[in-house]
Design goal:
It contains eight helices and seven strands. It is α+β, with helices and mostly antiparallel strands. The longest helix has 28 residues, at 13-40.
């Protein structure tokens, strides 16, 4: 006989949420690892742990590297680990899946809210964003000290809820962003600030993943 519903075992929703949260964090860390290997390689495991913020989790780093090496995305030598050609294609595809056209250091004092800043160019994602302040909060939870979210629509750069037409007040700023990122209609350019460059990269990936 079936147990009454009130006595039926209930799924551990908290445990499930924790697993999902951990899974998402590992996905972000793995992409950050690929980015670090692509930008800094050859690089040793200990330095890699520092860059991706997993100095206290050597097991995670070792396992992620082992998995990537097993699939021939990463090669290892005496000088350290580096992406193979197959790994470079994987990184490119992972970035494309998150609509990331470009992600790189971008020093723009007028929009910077920390020691360093990273520019994140997301293709055709402006319509997915509700409130820019929510996206900024996501960036902060991902390790940023702040973030400025700009939309490019109809040839105009705007900061939602701040300046409807940022172009009219800062034409030189628009030119610098256009020259650096070459945005198209409905693109998002996020200026993500952080204490160091790699925390900026991680927060930028967190923002992109939230919109994917």
């Amino acid at each position: 006989m079936d147990l009454p519903k009130v006595l039926s075992p209930k799924p551990n929703t908290r445990r499930k949420r924790n697993r999902e949260k951990r899974g998402k964090r590992l996905e972000i860390k793995e992409l950050l690892m690929l980015l670090a290997l692509g930008r800094e390689g050859p690089i040793g495991r200990y330095r890699l742990k520092e860059l991706i913020g997993l100095s206290e989790h050597e097991g995670w780093v070792k396992q992620m590297l082992a998995n990537l090496q097993k699939q021939k995305y990463v090669s290892s030598s005496k000088t350290g680990c580096t992406l193979t050609e197959k790994g470079k294609i994987l990184l490119e595809n992972r970035l494309k899946t998150l609509h990331i056209v470009d992600i790189k250091p971008f020093d723009l004092p007028l929009l910077k809210a920390g020691p360093v800043s990273v520019g994140l160019h997301l293709q055709n994602t402006a319509d997915k964003i509700g409130l820019a302040i929510e996206l900024r909060d996501i960036a902060v939870r991902g390790g940023a000290t702040g973030a400025t979210i700009t939309f490019f629509k109809e040839g105009k750069l705007s900061v939602p809820s701040v300046y409807p037409d940022f172009l009219s007040e800062n034409p030189s700023l628009l030119k610098k962003i256009q020259d650096f990122f070459n945005p198209e209609d409905n693109d998002v350019i996020a200026i993500v600030s952080a204490e160091d460059e790699w925390r900026g990269f991680e927060a930028s990936i967190t923002v992109a993943k939230a919109l994917s």
